């Protein structure tokens, strides 16, 4: 009987997770998924580089709020070219713009 209750509780929790995400105050979830009025959005932010992965062509940045997308501050990964991150390293404070399309964030420009 206890196993049945655990399975039921886990099922209810898993089904409720998307609803909790949608209710995050001040966060426009359609911008996160890329399902917005325009297929590609461009926004700007400032933050600190946490990691650079040259093999995967990604940079992880802890950034402040992105007003254009109604995002709170967070840490996230962005696709980036080798040319864009030349001379940058973890710990650098940067200003950057990025495009958001299909749920993928790609750096458009980045500078110290």
Secondary-structure map:
Blueprint: H1 2-22, H2 29-33, E1 40-53, E2 58-63, E3 74-79, H3 82-85, E4 93-101, E5 104-111
Antiparallel strand pairs: 1-2, 1-4, 2-3, 4-5
Structural features, described:
With 112 residues, the chain is an alpha+beta fold. The protein has one domain: Beta Barrel (OB fold (Dihydrolipoamide Acetyltransferase, E2P)), CATH 2.40.50.320. 27% of the residues lie in helices and 38% in strands. Strands 3-2-1-4-5 form a five-stranded antiparallel sheet. A hairpin with a 4-residue loop joins strand 1 and strand 2 (58-63). The protein is globular, with a radius of gyration of 18 Å. Residues 1-37 have low confidence and may be disordered.
Which tags fit this structure?
5 strands, 112 residues, alpha+beta, OB fold (Dihydrolipoamide Acetyltransferase, E2P), disordered N terminus, five-stranded antiparallel beta sheet
The largest sheet has its strands arranged as 3-2-1-4-5
CATH fold node name: OB fold (Dihydrolipoamide Acetyltransferase, E2P)
- What do the pLDDT scores average to? 77
Question: What characteristic shape results from the CA principal axes?
Answer: globular
- Within CATH, the superfamily carries the name Copper binding periplasmic protein CusF
- Please tally the β strands and state the result: 5
Q: How many discrete structural domains?
A: 1
> Major beta sheet, specifics?
5 strands, antiparallel
